[in-house]
Structure formats: C-alpha cells, structure tokens
Amino acid sequence: MINIDYMINDEIREPQVRVIDQNGEQLGILPTRQALQMAEERELDLVKIAPQAKPPVCKMMDYGKYRFEMAKKDKEARKRQKVISIKEVRLSATIGEHDVEVKVKNAVKFLKDGDKVKVTIRFRGRQISHSQIGLEVMKDFFERVKDVANMERQPKVEGRSMVMILSPKET
Known about the structure:
Layout: E1 7-8, E2 16-20, E3 26-31, H1 32-41, E4 45-50, E5 57-61, H2 63-80, E6 86-91, H3 97-112, E7 116-122, H4 131-145, E8 149-158, E9 161-168
Parallel strand pairs: 2-5, 6-7
Antiparallel strand pairs: 1-4, 2-3, 4-5, 7-9, 8-9
C-alpha cells in the first residue's frame, strides 16, 4: 500500500507556498490561504508534494483519485513481481541409487517451477574426513539435473555440511 502521507488542505501550516495547478503549470508563490481558496473553487485538494523546498511546493489535485491510482499501480507491481524461494534437497554421503533418483525428480520439479534449489549433504560422525565422497555425490546430482539447472554456487563445506545452490536455466 502507499506509505507516503502528504499534508493536504488545512494541514499545511506554512505562510507561503509555491503552487502548481492540476495541469502542471506553476502559479507562483502564494499565501497558503489564497492557494487553499483557489483549490476549493476548482473543487480540488491542495497537496504539499515537496515539504523540504523553500517555500514548500503544493499541487492542486483530486487527492482521493490520486491515492486510488497509486494503490492500483502498487497492486499491479506486486502482481508482476516473481518471488523466488529456495527449496532444499537433502542428500547423504551414503545415499542409494533409487533415493538419488527421487531427490533428482523433486529438484527438477522445483527448478521447473522457477525456484532455486539448495542441495545439502550432512556428514555424520567420521564421514566428514571423507568429504570427497560427498563431493562425488554432489557432482553426480548436478550431472543429472544440468539440463534444467545452472550451478549458482559450487559445492562447499560449511561445518559438518556441504552445500551447493542450483538455479533454474533461462528458457
């Protein structure tokens, strides 16, 4: 939603303001009361759009219509944006062939949906001393999904885990 709150009409306390009419033409520096009266005659609101300027800049507009238009634009922008989430696939250094196939199938589904996939191997006990086995499992996993995935981050050991991040290939 709109998070900018403008001062309108009687909320404007400055003695003089620079006034712009609804067509964008400058009317010059006027006393605030006179600017408010002109806006009322045109059935518009006087909105302070640049409070930091000296004197502050105010524009005559239909504020209700303006807020509606901004809310509509905001909603459209949210509708168009793509939220990328990261899905995780956990493997082990001693994973079986069928289990790898199931994990590959899930990862491919996530990648086709446009999500990133974080592939993790958790080393237990003394497995950490044989991290090259985990690296081989990761390389094999990537070979199976490389037609739909790009390797965004190479397999890297972090504590007792090895992590690789895959992103969907652009089509």
